[in-house]
Design goal:
5-stranded antiparallel sheet, Jelly Rolls, alpha+beta
């Protein structure tokens, strides 16, 4: 019988842009769910944040941050800023990393590769934002 379990994480990062390894929180939600086979959705509920799966390496995080700045730098002339906002680059960075991931669950464990971890990416922080974790399966 298919079941589901939902949890929310709330973040208020110390920095405007920050990358947080949330794998332990996702594993804890999976353990609480009791689901052994299925999948888990992890999704940022804000359009200036993202979620991704990648290697847990500080050098790689710095490379990703630099790459995102090259592709979507802060600029004062974004059309979005005409609305009174100043976070046009945060929206673009979120599009580049995407807002959600789906991870397989096998034998009650996240079925990730040997170096893979789940990250929350904050591009317009220092205010409260949420991530939903939805575990689905048997």
């Amino acid at each position: 019988m298919m079941r589901s379990h939902t949890e929310y994480l709330t973040f208020k990062t110390q920095k405007h842009r920050e990358y947080v390894n949330i794998t332990p929180q996702v594993e804890a939600a999976l353990a609480k769910s009791g689901i052994r086979e299925g999948m888990i959705l992890v999704s940022a509920m804000h359009i200036t944040a993202g979620v991704w799966v990648n290697d847990a390496d500080d050098g790689l995080l710095a490379d990703i941050d630099e790459w995102l700045d090259k592709l979507a730098p802060f600029r004062r002339d974004y059309r979005h800023h005409r609305t009174g906002e100043s976070n046009g680059d945060a929206h673009l960075k979120s599009l580049l990393v995407h807002h959600e991931v789906i991870v397989p669950v096998t034998a009650a464990k996240l079925d990730l590769g040997p170096w893979q971890q789940i990250y929350y990416a904050e591009f317009d922080g220092q205010r409260s934002k949420r991530v939903i974790i939805k575990v689905m399966g048997e």
